[in-house]
Specification:
The complex is a heterodimer of chains A (about 300) and B (about 230).
Chain A (H helix, E strand, L loop, with lengths): L1 E5 L4 H12 L4 E5 L6 E6 L7 E4 L2 E4 L5 E4 L4 H8 L3 H20 L3 E3 L2 H4 L5 H10 L7 E4 L2 H11 L2 E4 L9 E2 L2 H6 L7 E5 L4 E8 L2 E8 L14 E5 L3 H14 L3 E8 L5 E7 L5 H7 L3 H11 L8
Parallel strand pairs in A: 1-2, 1-6, 6-7
Antiparallel strand pairs in A: 3-4, 4-5, 8-11, 9-10, 9-11, 12-13, 12-15, 13-14, 15-16
Helix pairs in contact in A: 1-10, 2-3
Chain B lengths: L1 E4 L5 H10 L4 E4 L1 H4 L5 E3 L7 E4 L2 E4 L5 E4 L17 H18 L4 E2 L14 H10 L8 E2 L12 E6 L2 E3 L4 H14 L3 E6 L5 E5 L6 H11 L4 H7 L1
Parallel strand pairs in B: 1-2, 1-6, 6-7
Antiparallel strand pairs in B: 4-5, 9-10, 9-11, 11-12
The chains are: A alpha+beta (about 300), B alpha/beta (about 230).
Chain lengths: ~300, ~230
């Protein structure tokens, strides 16, 4: 049994569910839009005997061989559904308990919450990538205007973006932003702007699906005019091996790794997304990412069976 | 200088600073994290500046860090506009997560699994690890509406490296040490019931004098050259 958790409209979940069902693999979908009636029973130290109640039905969690989770913040989903506060609290507690189970179960989990946490600090992820041989952009976290100005002067073109996993628009540093550093609420992350072509590498188990993303925008997710041109491509084997090694070291079964190839042929690491919206790239390139993930999930064996 | 990353009103940190002296220990709270003067970069790693105790402090003067929090929380940031608190909390946590990982002095405990003070941010993984290590553990049933609280401990053991603080049978202290080794935790507090079963653990032992002294010994351990000179 494969457990899928998130909202039913989510592109990657929908694609993987369809691929699993096409193979005749049993799935159970924990749809956050229906979570008001859900509950689960688990042991605080992990182990056997967990149960998941989904409305009228109940599932023995020991029969779950693999999990693919992409839950949205439960509180936000409940707000969208305009449920009362007490019901939202119950859903939050259910999701917390289920999240704990995904941390402790021996089933294959794509990806475990503790592994995904590395994405909460981009400079930390870059440090871990450097240890595996990736080059990363010169970076400064600062709330010191003079230090920021010196960094800007040294590197010429500088961008700023969030250091955390909170999505932010990458933008070019200018004098207005620099002056905001006189009264900051938190240090800002600056990086030397790296010229080149963006690459996205999706790592699924031992497979790598790469593509180039060409755009005139500083952040291709926010194009000013035409959208980015996404084209299937093949990474040099050494870089693909580095991506595999990084995903393994971060504990990611699935990841979307952002790289840039400079005009002089260097590969620069930006970040590894542990819950990539890969259907955006799959739709553009035809790369079989969802079927590769479905195959991986289907191959996992239930830890509670055969005992 | 020992930096203690923790809450502004944490009385345990007051106790530590009183015992070690303000010239050896300083608190880093959320107002320090939001202050001007931070400078942490990859261009010149040893040349950074942090803010602690309300003033800039060169990283080169930091002897060690004791971490007394799991994250920065939005509700702590009363000096930040309400709409920005969640974002700022995430950014500050991200910065500390990085700095406390790369800092080349003792950090008790280093970040791990998304929390500033590793190895775990909640009690359940401690119990699960204890069970994996073959320790006797108390495991209870949890549901959506039932989250059992650990029973009051019969024995509590604080560990700072090899130093064990607390009165407990040798087998209980041995179990706490095994848990710390398995978790890769330098600082740990573990609670056991009367039968010696692990009931809870975390990375925040009370800062009693023996714990503070053990932390100081860990941070200011004699340099190898001093040890050679003494032998």
């Amino acid at each position: 049994m494969i457990l899928l958790w998130g909202v039913s409209e989510d592109g990657p979940l929908r694609a993987v569910r369809a691929a699993l069902e096409a193979r005749g693999v049993d799935t159970v979908f924990v749809d956050q839009f229906d979570a008001e009636g859900f509950d689960c029973r688990i042991a605080t130290a992990g182990g056997d005997g967990g149960r998941l109640r989904l409305g009228a039905g109940e599932l023995d969690l020991d029969t779950v061989s693999a999990v693919y989770l992409r839950p949205y913040p439960g509180r936000r989903v409940m707000e969208l559904m305009e449920v009362e506060a007490a019901a939202a609290d119950r859903v939050e507690r259910f999701e917390d308990a289920l999240l704990q189970w995904t941390e402790l179960t021996p089933a294959l989990v794509v990806n475990r919450p503790s592994a995904m946490a590395s994405n909460g600090s981009k400079p930390l992820q870059a440090h871990l990538a450097e240890r595996l041989g990736f080059a990363t952009p010169p970076t400064l976290l600062t709330s010191d205007r003079d230090a920021a100005a010196a960094f800007w002067a040294k590197h010429g073109a500088v961008i700023y973006k969030s250091a955390s996993g909170v999505r932010s628009r990458v933008a070019q540093l200018d004098a207005v932003v620099l002056d905001r550093l006189c009264a900051p609420a938190c240090p800002i992350q600056l990086q030397a702007r790296i010229e080149g072509v963006d690459w996205r590498a999706h790592v699924v188990g031992d497979e790598v699906f790469a593509c180039t993303v060409e755009s005139d925008a500083v952040d291709y997710r926010y194009p000013e005019a035409d959208g980015p041109r996404i084209t299937a491509a093949t990474l040099p084997s050494a870089v693909a091996d580095q991506c595999l090694a990084l995903a393994r070291s971060l504990g990611f079964v699935l990841s979307g790794i952002d790289l840039r190839r400079t005009p002089d042929g260097r590969w620069i690491f930006f970040e590894a997304n542990p819950s990539p919206g890969f259907t955006y790239y799959e739709d553009a390139t035809g790369a079989p990412i969802s079927t590769a993930l479905a195959d991986l999930l289907a191959r996992a064996e239930a830890p509670g069976l055969g005992r | 200088m020992l930096i203690v990353v923790g809450g502004a009103r944490d009385a345990q940190i007051d106790r530590l600073i009183r015992r070690l002296g303000p010239d050896r220990a300083v608190r880093m709270d959320v107002t320090d994290l939001s202050a001007t003067g931070w400078r942490l970069g990859t261009d010149d790693r040893g040349d950074g500046v942090v803010v602690a105790g309300g003033r800039p402090l060169p990283v080169a003067q930091v002897s060690g860090v004791l971490v007394r929090r799991l994250a920065i929380y939005p509700q702590e940031l009363t000096h930040v506009h309400e709409d920005d608190r969640a974002y700022v909390a995430a950014e500050l946590t991200a910065m500390l997560m990085w700095w406390l990982t790369v800092l080349e002095v003792p950090v008790l405990n280093r970040p791990a699994r998304g929390v500033l003070c590793g190895p775990f941010g909640r009690p359940e993984p401690w119990l699960a690890l204890g069970a994996q290590l073959g320790l006797a553990v108390v495991s209870e049933t949890r549901t959506r509406d039932l989250r059992p609280a650990p029973a009051p401990p019969h024995w509590t053991v604080s560990l700072v490296g090899d130093a064990a603080i607390g009165t407990a049978p040798r087998n209980v202290i041995a179990a706490a040490r095994r848990l710390a080794r398995g978790a890769g935790a330098t600082v740990l507090q573990a609670a056991f019931d009367a039968e010696g079963r692990l009931t809870a653990a975390d990375s925040f032992p009370p800062l009693d004098e023996p714990v503070i002294d053990a932390i100081a010994a860990r941070v200011w351990k004699p340099a190898p050259r001093a040890l050679l000179a003494a032998s």
